[in-house]
Design brief:
The chain has 100 residues and is an alpha+beta fold. The protein is built from three helices and four strands. It has a four-stranded antiparallel sheet with strand order 2-3-1-4. Strand 2 and strand 3 form a beta hairpin. The termini are close together.
């Protein structure tokens, strides 16, 4: 079955000590900004109950180019830099959606 979600990413990151709230705030800002970008189908930030200092981001786009262009935009790029400055142990995996 073809999925309308052509491209996805799953990212897990751990906040630096004492920076969890700032990390979550940065990700909330990304969420607000990215939903206005053409091609963004879903962008969800979650916590991991078993790892209180970790966050998990799942995003789906119509095409990889849409995702890359979004994070090159002013505003989103600066917040993405804050995300990287506040986090460690970042794991990112490309997803190939099969169904929705």
């Amino acid at each position: 079955m073809n999925s309308p979600y052509g491209y996805g990413l799953a990212t897990k990151a751990r906040a630096l000590p004492g920076k969890h709230e700032l990390l979550v705030e940065a990700l909330e800002e990304v969420t607000r900004l990215v939903f206005n970008v053409p091609g963004c189908l879903s962008y969800v930030v979650s916590t991991l109950p078993a790892e209180p200092d970790a966050v998990f981001i799942t995003e789906f786009w119509d095409h990889p180019d849409s995702q890359r262009s979004a994070f090159a935009m002013a505003g989103i790029y600066e917040v993405a830099l804050r995300f990287h400055a506040l986090s460690t142990d970042i794991e990112q995996h490309e997803l190939q959606p099969l169904a929705s």
